[in-house]
């Protein structure tokens, strides 16, 4: 019983680790670089992002625990559903260094498009196992849709400067 509590907390906290590291590593680029980018009028306020990601990471982390628990831990049955989850989480964590760290909007766009596909695949694979876990990913998919559209708009509206070119 006590051990299950530790697993629940561990799975729930795990997504926050990469999210926090991504923020921490790139936090200085937000006021310096990101604020200067042309963004659409529907871009959420900077203050919304940490709140949204806290809620989304908590939901997806707990959902991953439900799947792990329903499949009896790291069994062969868990390989695909938890593998998809791990892959999409890795792409999720990779986006901030691509976008904020490297200022590579094209690579960030490729990353988030692949992330979208993996997140949808994760939800579909989870739906047969645990409908609640799958439904916990719905807000995440909604936020990813907005983030993808935002990445596309920022990429289109802010042509990347070529090194050595002066305006």
UniProtKB/TrEMBL annotation:
Signal peptide: none annotated. The chain crosses the membrane at residues 6-26, 47-66, 78-95, 107-129, 135-155. It is found in: Membrane. It comes from the Eukaryota. InterPro entries: TspO/MBR-related_sf (IPR038330), TspO_MBR (IPR004307). Its main location: membrane. Keywords: Membrane, Transmembrane, Transmembrane helix. It is a multi-pass membrane protein. GO terms for cellular component: mitochondrial outer membrane. It holds the Pfam family TspO_MBR. Belongs to the TspO/BZRP family. This is TSPO protein. The lineage of its organism: Eukaryota, Metazoa, Chordata, Craniata, Vertebrata.
